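Aim 2 progress update. The chain analyzed this quarter is reproduced below.
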Amino acid sequence: MSILDTLTGPEDLRRLPVSRLDELAGEIRETIIAQVSKTGGHLAPNLGVVELTIALHYVFDFSHDRLLFDVGHQCYPHKLLTGRQGLMGKLRTREGMSGFPEPLESGFDLFRVGHAGTGISTAVGMARGDTLNAQAYDPETNPNGRRVVALIGDASIANGVAMEGLNNAGTLKRQMLVVLNDNGMSISKPQGALAGYFDRVRVSHTYSDFKKGARKILGKIPGGGVLQEAYHRAGEMTKAMIAEH
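Predicted structure tokens:
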């Protein structure tokens, strides 16, 4: 039996040793490729966030914490990790799994979202609501409070709504994590000054030096070697699977 078949939810994922997470990532990619080849769907966006989604669910408890997607069609790994493997066989059908977050499917999906740049603003609103309800995470006064995470793509970050959300997030004075999935991809080539800035960062010596430094740090921390190897193998695995299919 595969690792994925044994997972009924993220709580099972967090019981796995770090050494098995790269194997799980491979199984998730195989599942997505096999299904999308039959029913269609978003392939590359989901293959590109497998390790990131595993890491988020491994660190956070989104049955309690908040996870907002933007873009929504990168949610297939998230759905597979939250107990919806049985819906995958009818992806994008009325009886099966939606191609976007769907609250009617699971409490882990907070909103129906596409890629309108609304993720950060929504996350800010939820963060403020948790603060007003005395449910916000604070390491000293409320260590069991709710954390908030917004995962946004490099095309959506250029939305005016996303910029407004970042502006408001700076006034929260509480935990809020914004993860930018900067993969240089969108329906068409990203335009504008911000997209150009990300392109320059990707090819800069500062960025490449930072990546090298991060690999050295991973090699020195417990379990870091496994993560370092998984990072490298993930890229090679994705290339191989796409070539095979």
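Confidence is low (pLDDT under 50) at residues 237-243. The chain has one domain: 3-189. These observations will guide the mutagenesis experiments scheduled for the next reporting period.
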